[in-house]
Amino acid sequence: MKLDHSLVTRRTFLNTLFGGWLAAIASGGLYAFLKFVFPTAGKEPDFVVLNRADFLDIPGNTVKMFAWGGKPGFFLKRDDGTTLAVKGVCTHMECNISYQPDVKKFYCACHKGWFDDNGRNIAGPPPKPLERFDIVITGQKLVIAKKGAKVDLPKA
Amino acid sequence: MISRKLEDWITERYDIKGLGRLLRAKYVPSHCLDASYFTGGLTLFLFIVQFLTGMGLALYYVPHSEYAYKSIVDIMTKLNMGWFFRSLHHWGAQLAIASLFVHFFANLLLKAYRKPRELLWVTGFIMIIVLVFFGLSGYFLIWDQRAFTAIRVATGGAGNLPLIGGPIKVFLRGGIDVTQETLTRFYALHVAILPMISLIIIGLHVLLVQVHGMSVPVSQKDKQGQPQPFFPNVFYKDLIIWFLATGIIVTLAVLLPAGIGTKADPMAPAPENIKPEWYFLFVFQTLKLFPGQMAGFNGETIAMTVISLSVLFVLLVPFLDKRSSAGKPSLAYTCIGVFYLLYFVAMTIIGFLN
Fold it and tell me: Residue A154 domain-assigned?
């Protein structure tokens, strides 16, 4: 039945009200469920604090690994004593890489990608250079930080 | 006497004779391409094998990054017949996937998807996706170095899809990295979510086959022989194939038991010459065709998009192939089907040889 000045019938009104109520409950529930199912991603560390002596005293043309969140990081000391810190994950498909001292390059075994001792992608499929980190030495600590990240060390 | 009474007792409550009549009323067309009808039954049988062996394995497997690897080693070395049932599960999976691919290509080429069987095609397509995720998640559970790297690459690859890639990657990994969270998720997928989805989708698929009957290819419409009764004629042929399949997986399980590498270490470099499971080789090879950068875009993103669209096209074939649905020969879609088949086979072989 439709009142004289009404735009819709009572049936349409009730159906819309009931349907809208169902839709609201369902979408609210779905939203909450999706929020639950998709985790908060978390993020990689801005910097890691390491022991200076453990890293700076390694021989030339060797690497020492450190944990960059859940992934490996490489601290490289070249023959001339200069150093480099990179994330040890290939920029192609995220496989862990390794350092090959005989050719002085980083190598990814998954699809045969090569990076030079500056982290530049020089052969194979990797589309980008390795992620390079800043190396900061403060006292007995070696801080390896994301490029441009603010390093806040707790006062010792 | 007892069985007679039991039968009466049940019949008073449910007419089981009706099921028998239904079974006897089912006839299967016969023509020179009717061998394709057995591929579905074989896939179903292998699924049952996977369900049964999987239930056994689930009694012992520990879904924790510290203990998962050890629990597999224990299953293989300490438990009675553990090596056998894990190997059965391993080879059963390989064969189930192979059998589903054969089932898929046979029905693609014979146009079994045409009206009114579009929903059969859609449910079958969902099952292919489900089975691929079954394979991926099951493979990861052993938590060895190869599995770990493979899952990092596979979930990272999905992350290369435009827009939806990021959320998919985080959803699959349960975070930004492959960790315990990922193992928990893949375990839940493998033992709870995917089996549940499979039961529903396979149920629908089999129900729809009963409703529509077997599809007769257009070319065989006028060359059919006498339809065969499903029970017992066709059923016994099904049984023969199932026994053969059992023989094959038991033989493979005994002669080539499933192995395991070294325990996964998230910090260790990727193993040399790593290759995905054979049913992912064609994706792996396709990715190799694309350079890292293409016209300013990430090559992986373009590759993943192309692959996803090609897969999506398969889903839409019944709705696009109007000639087949009208009961006419459809050369274009035969060519497309042959191309897909050749591409899949060629890329898989190249992947093997590389």
Answer: no
d(CA B87, CA B253): 5
pLDDT value of residue B248: 97
- DSSP string across A20-35: HHHHHHHHHHHHHHHH
Q: Apex CA A131: angle with CA A130 and CA A135, to 5°?
A: 120
Residue A1 — pLDDT band, cuts 50, 70, 90? low
Structure tokens at B242: 């199932």
| Number of domains forming the structure of chain A | 2
A55 and A86, same domain (yes or no): yes
Interface-testing mutation among A38, A94, A98, with chain B (most B C-beta atoms within 10 A): A94
Pair (A81, A136) in one structural domain: yes
Is A12 a domain residue? yes
Q: Give a yes or no: residue A14 inside a domain.
A: yes
A32 shares its domain with A69? no
Judge whether A15 lies within some domain.
yes
Query: What rounded mean pLDDT belongs to chain B?
Result: 92
Residues A123, A132: Cα–Cα separation, whole Å: 18
Q: Which range marks the domain in which residue A9 is found?
A: 1-41
pTM over the 0.90 mark: no
Cross-chain residue pair B266–A109, CB shorter than 8 Å? no
Partners of residue A146 on adjacent β-strands:
A133
Q: Are residues A36 and A51 in the same domain?
A: no
Domain harbouring A95, CATH code: 2.102.10.10
Instruction: For an interface test with A, give the residue of B146, B148, B153 to mutate (most A CBs within 10 A).
Output: B153
CA distance B276 to B139: 10
Helices B118-141 and B180-188 cross at an angle (nearest 10°) of 140
ipTM of the shown complex: 0.76
Query: Can you give the length of chain A in residues?
Result: 156
| Residue whose C-alpha is closest to residue A97's, from A77, A114, A122 | A114
Q: Does one domain contain both A65 and A20?
A: no
Q: What are phi and psi of B144, to 5 degrees?
A: -105, 175
Using one digit for the tens of pLDDT, what is the confidence trace for B301-343? 888 889 999 999 999 999 999 999 888 999 999 999 999 999 9
Distance from CA of B346 to the nearest CA of A (A): 20
**CATH number for the domain formed by residue range(s) B30-263:** 1.20.810.10
Decide: residue B117, CB within 10 A, 0-12 exposed, 13-18 middle, 19+ buried: buried
Residues 38-57 of A with CB under 8 A from B: 38-39, 41-44
> Are A138 and A65 members of one domain?
yes
